[in-house]
């Protein structure tokens, strides 16, 4: 029998959920029939999910998500959270929290934290030369050094993360959970700036340069989020969860930065993972460590299947931690609808849900 303190987290990319006539990319719109089909599919998935906390991505309109919950018959069961009151421009994240869980606080991040900087100066030759190498011509020493100078001027998220503090309305022994709902920059190449003075020179290489720009931005966003997470997680026992379309695989550099690469316990006699103050554990990895079926994916591109949508949890959800409050039960992925030529009424991403049982250490 399920304990009311058990909890499940889900991530769902809505794939451009917008009201009829509302503008999307390149002026695209839905007619009423297309909107009805999209709302019907979204509502059906919400009913299947049965998750306590859901993070959404690619939402254009508040009303569209309200309509989906109404169609699913779940309006009274969930409280919805958006990045701000009123309307917004472009796609955003949103969230839903099911009773008896409640939203205690909400916070949006747009600017990178002040501590976040991706710059590195040129190293002066005096710092490169060792005392016993003073007789070596400086130009020869410099030629053998790696040039690590960098100046990356990104200072805001492309899509604002939303942080919720989620509490239990009936149990005082359950600590509030800090939930970050995220959507990092996509892998799709960024369009080049046509006004750039070297645009014509760059144009033949637009795909490579655009992909590099997207990768750099996604890495910067992961780093900024890591800085924010560390400020919230260090030196306290606040359970923390990161949900969302992170647009990279679990072993990618993006996820390594974001998770801080905690150790997993892979055999019973190990003492690994007893403590990790600000690391985040991947529900995908936890599922893979306990099942013979390792074929998990939430996205398909040119035949390549990978997990881009993640549930990352702090040590309070890891069963081998001395600070455990919950233990991982299972990860489920709905991905039958994810095909190269998927139906526009559905999504181009799989939907993930991770369940955790209340089991304090």
Q: Per DSSP, what share of the residues sits in E-state strands of 2 or more residues?
A: 25-35%
The second-level CATH architecture of the largest domain is: 4-Layer Sandwich
Model regions low in confidence, pLDDT < 50 over at least 5 residues: none
| Total DSSP helices | 8
Protein described:
Helix 6 runs parallel beside helix 7. Helices cover 23% and strands 26% of the residues. The strands form 4 sheets. Strands 3-4-2-1-16-15 form a 6-stranded mixed β-sheet. Strands 5-8-9-10-14-11 form a 6-stranded mixed β-sheet. The longest helix has 28 residues. The chain is globular, with a radius of gyration of 23 Å. It folds into 2 domains: 314 residues, Endonuclease/exonuclease/phosphatase (Deoxyribonuclease I, Chain A), CATH 3.60.10; 37 residues, no CATH class. It is an alpha+beta fold and 361 residues long.
């Amino acid at each position: 029998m399920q304990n009311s303190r058990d909890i499940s987290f889900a991530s769902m990319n809505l794939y451009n959920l917008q009201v009829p006539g509302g503008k999307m990319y390149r002026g695209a719109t839905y007619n009423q029939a297309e909107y009805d089909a999209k709302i019907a599919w979204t509502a059906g998935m919400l009913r299947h999910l049965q998750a306590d906390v859901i993070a959404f991505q690619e939402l254009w309109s508040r009303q569209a998500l309200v309509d989906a919950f109404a169609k699913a018959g779940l309006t009274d069961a969930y409280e919805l959270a958006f990045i701000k009151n009123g309307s917004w421009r472009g796609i955003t994240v949103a969230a839903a929290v099911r009773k008896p869980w409640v939203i205690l606080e909400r916070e949006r991040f747009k600017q990178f934290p002040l501590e976040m900087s991706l710059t590195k100066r040129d190293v002066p030759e005096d710092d490169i030369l060792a005392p016993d190498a003073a007789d070596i011509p400086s130009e020869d020493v410099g030629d053998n050094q790696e040039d690590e100078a960098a100046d990356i001027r990104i200072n805001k998220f492309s899509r604002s993360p939303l942080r919720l503090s989620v509490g239990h309305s009936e149990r005082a022994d359950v600590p509030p959970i800090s939930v970050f709902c995220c959507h990092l920059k996509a892998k799709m190449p960024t369009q080049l700036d046509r006004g750039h003075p070297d645009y014509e020179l760059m144009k033949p290489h637009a795909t490579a340069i655009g992909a590099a720009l997207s990768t750099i931005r996604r890495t910067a966003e992961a780093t900024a989020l890591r800085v924010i997470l560390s400020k919230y997680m260090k030196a306290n026992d606040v359970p923390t969860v990161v949900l969302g379309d992170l647009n990279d695989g679990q072993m990618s550099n993006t996820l390594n930065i974001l998770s801080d690469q905690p150790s997993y316990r892979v055999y019973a006699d190990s003492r690994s993972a007893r403590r990790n103050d600000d690391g985040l554990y991947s529900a995908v990895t936890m599922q893979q460590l306990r099942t013979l079926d390792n074929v998990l994916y939430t996205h398909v591109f040119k035949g390549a299947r990978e997990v881009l949508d993640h549930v990352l949890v702090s040590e309070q959800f890891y069963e081998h931690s001395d600070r455990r409050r919950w233990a991982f039960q299972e990860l489920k992925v709905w991905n039958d609808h994810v095909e190269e030529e998927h139906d526009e009424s559905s999504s181009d991403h799989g939907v993930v849900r991770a369940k955790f049982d209340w089991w304090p250490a």
